[in-house]
Amino acid sequence: MYSIKQVAAMLGIQAVTLRAWENRYNAVTPERTESGYRMYTEDHVADLRWLKEQIDQHQTSISEAVRMLKEQKESRSKAEIPMPMLPPVPVAEDAYAQMTDQIYESLYHFQGERANGLIDFGFTMYGYDSMFYHVLVPILIRVGDAWEEGRATIAQEHFMTQLISQRFYQFFHLFPIYPHLPKVLALCPEGEHHQVGLLLFSLFMRKNGAEVLYLGANTPEEGLLPIIKEQKIKLVCLSITNPVFVDTCDRLIDRIRDEFPHVRFVLGGKGFERAEHARHPEWIMPTDSAEWQSWIEREYFTSTGG
């Protein structure tokens, strides 16, 4: 179930437009909570995505698109044939690869408006989870590789990374925050410029209801201790891609623990995975993101009052 804010962000449709489509055209009828808030099912989102596609791609009016949608539903009901109501969305790997290439090329040539338009279209077609994991994350990895290999300038790397990172941040506010969960501080230590894993884990924590203060890549140590104290941080997430930063993280962890013994840590990224002698292997998160949920609940949420 999705709130109206989540649906608006997923589909690129303003909340006021969603309400108008409901009230004026009976496009969809979302369920209501006891407090009266709209809640949309997967079927509602699919219908709204299809309506938007008719308007954007075929210049169909909303009233005509709603009429077509209802006719399709009625025809399917009368025929009683188990066939999909709407044309299947192309989610094959080659479709994701094509979208990735188009967005990457736009960013590479500093075409921000075109890139944002493609990303919006991707969210509409595939939903935000698929776009993040199958398109935007591969682009960030590709950008990092291109910069390291000299195929992208530092300006290109910064522009591409910043634009995609901003799209990640937009979704942070969509999920409710549960005060009983540990407050998280997420950062890469000074010198570490790659933040793909940190972004993904931070989004994962926000989806779980934890408040995340995201500091991002190349964060200097100066000022961290006051933040931990003032913001009542209970969990610090450190991410590195190069094992050379393991010692830096260990020293930072020691200083934080000396000052705040209650603070716990999550260590992620290829840098920790490749470390031969990790001092805190119990804090290194699983490589497979499919295991994150059970791991975080077992290791952190249950033991921090959650």
TrEMBL record:
<dbReference type="InterPro" id="IPR003759">
    <property type="entry name" value="Cbl-bd_cap"/>
</dbReference>
<protein>
    <submittedName>
        <fullName>B12 binding protein</fullName>
    </submittedName>
</protein>
<dbReference type="InterPro" id="IPR000551">
    <property type="entry name" value="MerR-type_HTH_dom"/>
</dbReference>
<dbReference type="Pfam" id="PF02310">
    <property type="entry name" value="B12-binding"/>
</dbReference>
<dbReference type="GO" id="GO:0003677">
    <property type="term" value="F:DNA binding"/>
</dbReference>
<keyword id="KW-0238">DNA-binding</keyword>
<keyword id="KW-0804">Transcription</keyword>
<dbReference type="InterPro" id="IPR036724">
    <property type="entry name" value="Cobalamin-bd_sf"/>
</dbReference>
<feature type="domain" description="HTH merR-type">
    <location>
        <begin position="1"/>
        <end position="71"/>
    </location>
</feature>
<dbReference type="Pfam" id="PF02607">
    <property type="entry name" value="B12-binding_2"/>
</dbReference>
<dbReference type="GO" id="GO:0003700">
    <property type="term" value="F:DNA-binding transcription factor activity"/>
</dbReference>
<dbReference type="InterPro" id="IPR036594">
    <property type="entry name" value="Meth_synthase_dom"/>
</dbReference>
<dbReference type="InterPro" id="IPR009061">
    <property type="entry name" value="DNA-bd_dom_put_sf"/>
</dbReference>
<dbReference type="InterPro" id="IPR006158">
    <property type="entry name" value="Cobalamin-bd"/>
</dbReference>
<keyword id="KW-0805">Transcription regulation</keyword>
<dbReference type="Pfam" id="PF13411">
    <property type="entry name" value="MerR_1"/>
</dbReference>
<dbReference type="GO" id="GO:0046872">
    <property type="term" value="F:metal ion binding"/>
</dbReference>
<dbReference type="InterPro" id="IPR047057">
    <property type="entry name" value="MerR_fam"/>
</dbReference>
<dbReference type="GO" id="GO:0031419">
    <property type="term" value="F:cobalamin binding"/>
</dbReference>
<feature type="domain" description="B12-binding">
    <location>
        <begin position="181"/>
        <end position="306"/>
    </location>
</feature>
